[in-house]
Amino acid sequence: MADSLLVVGAGGHGKVVADAVMEMARWSRIGFVDDRSEHLKQVAGVPVIGRLADLMALRGEWSAAAIAIGDARRRLEVLEIVLGLKFELPVIIHPGAIVSRLAAVGVGTVVFAQAAINAGTTIGSGCIVNTGATVDHDCQLGDGVHIAPGANLAGDVTVGDRSWVGIGSAVLQGVSIGRDVMVGAGAVVLQDVPDAVTVYGIPARVRSEVIRSRTDD
Question: Taking Cα atoms as reference points, which of 113, 105, 99 lies closest to residue 142?
């Protein structure tokens, strides 16, 4: 039990989380929990052993959990459920990532291969720092933030809870991005962004106040 981990969510994102878990070689037993368990028997060679509703029953056999749900609100909701059930919620860091010893990373956050997090940065709970993303010195990321593949945050950037910084985007030093923001792919963010808007373009501009839910499994 002490070295067993459940990955909650068995979609594409869950597959990458499971791969990082296996590369860490810390847990001898890994399983998926997903509400599609009737149709999914295994993903990436890892068995799908039950539904989210089974977490309480599984607590006696499994010690730790990693949340692999793309939608930020749902991810944070499930994180609280898992914490309430007394699972350990480790930080999952792929061995190919670089995380400064002077950075702080919250529970349930995942950091994928080739990502870099530099000194003085604080990252909240349930975040995703995706493949090849960079978060430079003294950044502050809230809970449930997703820094998408290849996105680059310069130093002293702030990103509010549940915001999504899209693939290949860049954020200028010292910029503050609000909560529930969607930064579009390839955007260049040169100035502060208010809460609950979508921005994209070069330079990035506010395009919408309606945030489309992102549910990468």
Answer: 105
Q: Which residues of the chain register pLDDT less than 50? A: 210-211, 213, 215
14 lies in the same domain as 116 = no
Nearest alpha-carbon partner for 145 in 104, 117, 178, 115: 178
Active site residue 94: no
* Model confidence pLDDT, tens digit, residues 3-15: 999 999 999 999 9
Q: What span, in angstroms and rounded, lies between the C-alpha atoms of 163 and 189? A: 14
User: Which of 13, 94, 137, 146 does the annotation list as catalytic?
Assistant: 137
**Token output for 184:** 């579009």
> Do 35 and 217 form a contact (C-beta atoms < 8 A)?
no
Q: Report the domain count for the chain.
A: 2
The residue from 38, 67, 90 where one domain ends is 90
